[in-house]
Amino acid sequence: QVRLVESGGGLVQPGGSLRLSCTGSRIDLSPFRMAWYRQVEGKEREFVASISKNDVTNVWDTFKGRFTISRDNAKNSVYLQMNNLKPDDTAIYFCKAGGIPTRNDYWGQGTRVTVSA
Q: Which is nearest to 68 in space by CA: 27, 115, 17?
């Protein structure tokens, strides 16, 4: 069964950093456009950042300067480095593999990030 497994979430103080990871199981992530989304409780899921198969990145304006997306195809993984975290960043963060018209999109189960003093 194809799976995307996120990790790296947790509790962090305001101003702190976290690095989220998303690793593919039974799927080669290298041809996919990979993306991170997040969902705050009671709100819709929102786009955070993406990285193409050619390493072209796109970070939503809200997160520019604080969040960085990267990938390591040798490890079949994509990462989200989050710096200067704020309480408003508290959410469940999901990774997504997509961008190939002839294939399904795949979502991970999410990892919870809590930013609190």
A: 17
Dihedral over Cα of 113, 47, 36, 86: its sign: negative
Q: Collapsing DSSP states into helix, strand and coil, what is residue 62?
A: helix
Distance CA 86, CA 38 (A): 14
The burial class, CB within 10 Å (0-12 / 13-18 / 19+), for 90 is middle
> Tens of pLDDT along 82-117?
999 999 999 999 999 998 888 899 999 999 999 999
Question: Which residues, other chains included, contact 83 with Cβ-Cβ below 8 Å and sequence gap of 6+?
Answer: 17, 66, 67, 68
3-class secondary structure per residue, 73-114? HHHCEEEEEECCCCHHHCEEEEEEEECCCCCCCEECCCEEEE
Mean pLDDT of the chain: 97
